Amino acid sequence: MRTRKSHSQRVLAIDPMSYGFGFVVLESPTLVVDWGMPFIRRGNHERTLAEIGALIRLYEPGLLIIEESKGSRRCDRIQKLLEEVSQIKVRGLKIRRLPAKRVKKVFQAFGAKTKYEIAHTIAQQLPELTSRLPRFRKPWMSEDKRTCIFDAAALALTYLHSRSIGRKSQVPFASPLPLTDSAVMALPNSK
Taking Cα atoms as reference points, which of 54, 49, 91 lies closest to residue 66? Predict the structure, then answer.
């Protein structure tokens, strides 16, 4: 029997959407292992869970990060999917759920308020994702499908940022985004 070797520093963040999900795998706040957005037919929870399971087996992360479904503005189907993902049991895998409000609060500290600004902030931090940046969205345009990759990256970076603030050991954002004292004071301590 093969034992599962977990990469305790590796983080997998997932952002489900109506046509699949976006994901990002990080080794550190500045090192991207992989990213993508598998397209899955609407409402096919079994296939979505199977794809997420395949990613977990492939990358063997120590941590899976998803959005908190309670209090979320997501549709009922996506909230149910988030609940199902949070019930995944794999040895050595911890699951953390972050509210969207915390993600916004962290990125506001760096001057990014909209999804477009957050995506550009993430692209500065993780240049590998620059080619996937969504175009500026005008009010009559629907959201770019690639936004889910940046939403997943925002979840992962928010978690890593919150942990580094609690430990005060390292700054998870690269030099273009320095932490200020006011940004540190504005963040809640999380675990």
Answer: 49
1: amino acid identity, one letter: M
**How is 5-29 classified by DSSP, letter by letter?**
--EEEEEEEEEEETTEEEEEEEEET
The three-class DSSP label of residue 64 is strand
Taking the CB of residue 187, how many other CB atoms lie within 10 A of it? 17
Domain CATH for 94? 3.30.420.10
Question: Which bin fits 164, alpha (ψ -120 to 50), beta or left (φ > 0)?
Answer: alpha
Whole-structure pTM over 0.85, yes or no?
no
With contact defined as beta carbons under 8 Å apart, do 81 and 45 qualify? Answer: yes
Give burial (CB, 10 Å; 0-12/13-18/19+) of 164: middle
Domain range enclosing 57: 7-186
In Å, how far from its chain's centre is CA 81? 16
Condensed to tens digits (0 to 9), the pLDDT of residues 33-90 reads: 999 999 887 768 889 899 999 999 999 999 999 998 776 677 778 888 888 888 888 8
